[in-house]
């Protein structure tokens, strides 16, 4: 069973892209999500708990994340959650990774311009080349 989550947060690190030996891009960055609550006694908003996530995108979404996202931008993310325990010999811990299924700028905080990317399949490229 795949568990999906929706998160609203801040891109905390610059997106980093690597390419697999098969030529597929993988883009990752850290996302920070801080819960805010209203303190009635002080009549102001306060930051509460903060969670950190590693966001990973594969193939097309990886390309679009690399071209569209920058450190400091606010985003809304939908993805598959993976919780992993780790041990490096000195320390142990738990990390939470989110495989991005959909991501975009949070328009509560600003504006964005969408530009659709048109992809051609390998089959349609072959047909175009053969017709030339």
List the helices and strands and how they pair.
Layout: E1 4-11, E2 16-19, E3 25-39, E4 44-58, H1 60-68, E5 74-87, E6 92-105, H2 122-131
Parallel strand pairs: 4-6
Antiparallel strand pairs: 1-3, 1-5, 2-3, 3-4, 5-6
Binned, the helix content reads 10-25%
Low-confidence spans: none
Structural class: mainly beta
Number of structural domains? 1
The rounded Rg comes to: 19 Å
The CATH topology is given as: OB fold (Dihydrolipoamide Acetyltransferase, E2P)
Instruction: Just give the CATH class.
Output: Mainly Beta
Name the helix and strand elements from N-terminus to C-terminus, one letter apiece: EEEEHEEH
Strand content: over 45%
Rounded mean pLDDT score: 89
Counting DSSP E segments of at least 2 residues, the number of strands comes to: 6
CATH superfamily: Nucleic acid-binding proteins
Strand order of the largest sheet: 1-3-4-6-5
Distance between the termini: 47 Å
> Which outline best applies?
globular
Main β-sheet, in a few words? 5 strands, mixed, barrel
Count every helix, treating DSSP H or I runs of 4 or more residues as helices: 2
CATH architecture: Beta Barrel
Summarize the structure in words.
This protein has 132 residues and is mainly beta. It has one domain: OB fold (Dihydrolipoamide Acetyltransferase, E2P), CATH 2.40.50.140. It is 14% helix and 53% strand. It has two helices and six strands. The chain has helices at 60-68, 122-131; strands at residues 4-11, 16-19, 25-39, 44-58, 74-87, 92-105. It has a five-stranded mixed β-barrel with strand order 1-3-4-6-5. 14% of the residues are buried.
